[in-house]
Every structure is written in C-alpha cells, then in structure tokens.
Amino acid sequence: MSIDHAEHDLESVGARIDWDLASTVGKKLSRPGPKMTDYTRMAARVELADAAVRAEAPVREVTGLADGLAVPAARVLERDEWIDAAGQSMRSMLSGPGDADASPGLSGRIGGLQASGLLAFLSTAILGQYDPFSPPEEPVSGTADDPGVLMLVLPNIVGVERTLKVVPSDFRLWVCLHEVTHRVQFSANPWLRQYMLDNIEVLTSDAGESISDVVERITGALKGGKPREKGVIGAMQLLQTPEQYDAFNRMLMLGTLLEGHADHVMDAVGPAQVPTVASIRAAFDKRRTGPKNPVQRIIRALIGMDAKLAQYIRGKAFVDEVVSTVGMERFNAIWTSPETMPLPAEIDEPAKWIARVL
Fold it and tell me: Do residues 155 and 78 lie in contact, with contact meaning Cβ atoms separated by under 8 Å?
C-alpha cells in the first residue's frame, strides 16, 4: 500500500496556523500542576530521566527491536515546556516544504487561538509521548536517522501517582516502559515516520470539494444505508472524502497497533521490573475508564480521546493473541512495510492477519 504525494501549490495546514500564538496562549490557559518542593521536583526529574534509560534494555529484550542502537536521553518537561515542544512538533508535522516564509495572517491567528485550547487541555493530560517529528536537543551517534524525542511531563506523572496512591518509583518506570516502547518501535523501523507523514498529507490536503459537493456526499451516505462506525470515527467517515477516510483508517490502525503493542510490552516486562505492577495496572485502568465531568466528556469526544482508549484495548488484545499464537519473533513481521500493517477487519480477528501475512 503506497501513498503518492499530491502535488499542489496550496498552503499546508501547518502554514495556516500561528503556532507561536498557539503556544503563548496555551501556556496561559494551562492549569498549574500539583504543588511540589524544589527538592521533590528535582528528585522526580532525575528519577524519570534514569527510568527512561533503564526501561530501554528490557523493552528491547522483549520486543526484539532496536538492538545495537544508542539510547538517547529523554526530555523531562513542565507543562509549559511540553506546550512549546508540542507546538513545534505540530508545526513540523503539518507544514510543507514551501512554508518556511509563510505568514499565517488573521486566519492563522484564529487557528492559533483554537489550537491553544487543545494544547492547554492536553498539557494536563499527557503523561509522556514519543514524538517522531522532533529531533533530539543533541544528536546521538548510533541512532537511526531522525530518531525523534521521548518526552515525559513531570507534573502530570506526579499528579497521577498521587491520585492513584501508587509507589512513585514503580509508577515512573511503568510509564517509561510504555513510552520507551514507542521510541523503540520508530527507532527500529524508520519507515513508520514517513508513513505517518504520507497519510497526514492526504488527511490535511484540500480535496477541492465545494460545499454542495460535501452536502451531496453526506446526504448520499446517510440515505444509502451503508454501515458506519459510531462516534468520532463515524463522523470522519461522513465528512471525509473516500481517499481521506482511507488515510484516516490507516492512521487509526497504525495507532491501534502502536498503543496495543506498547501496552502488551508493559505487561510483559512489568512483573520482572516493577514490583507493584498489578496494583498499578488495576488502578490505572480504573482511572482510564472512570466517570468524567461533563466538560471533560465533551472535550474527550471532540478530540477523539475515547477512540484512543479503544485503541489501547483492541490493540493489546490483537497483539496478545498474535504473540501467544506465533511468538514475538514472527509477530515482528508486522513491522516490515505498510502492506503488513493490520487491516480494519483484522484487528478484532487476529487469525485473519496471521493467515494473510504469515
């Protein structure tokens, strides 16, 4: 499955958003983190940086990926630092080659204000992430090209461990096991980064449809009685062109695989590395699926966080079954190319992926 780059002279989505404004306003809107003494903050920073390094070896051993590559340092960030990093990442991810001198203008400022709210909300929710679109602060010899950067949001991790009443050192390593798995996935398979960019280009391209074209397509889909997904995914199915929806599905399947694989690795590595992993997993899963206030529910629905939760659950079940059936070494055929990624019909029926790929 290859994706051709569309040739067009239109500004990219990234060039139409004032990312500097988004970051500036986002930092003002973001809520302060939990109270900590300077000593507690520094101790947590040191421990998280160390945990990110310690997590690498067991993750590589379980996955069989990224052997021989150097271990880059993680960035341990405050919420405002994460907002700056995320804004730069989105600019890089969504911008085209001719956008360097683009000026967003009034519409860009409006887009920046809209993006600032999203950045502010996410800055309080993200525990950590591997960003394949931002280079590390200092190049690391021995890594793959464009290795990206692992970010850990210190106040959010501390806040959650306090809420869950778990052992801090265990929880910090447990979080790092998940995020380091993402770093290993991309480091061992550099093609994943371009695959994401290709699909994002399709998703954010101007389809050239008029309003009447869009209305006609949506009306036809509603009248046609064709089965649709529920929630955010169903809305995407209606609003996007067939080409964009195909790209959306490819991104959804990739995300489901990446998150499910990381959760599988966390549980496979956890018992040997994290003494209280069982209680952490139980408490964290309860938090994931627990009730949210109405405003949180609305925001989560709008940005697709509940769809992301489903990715963890469905993806982990897929990886668990394939690995238990064929072993991790044969499972790793999934990282060969876009053609070996799971299809939508295979995520809930792993035997179909095994039959097609292996």
Answer: yes
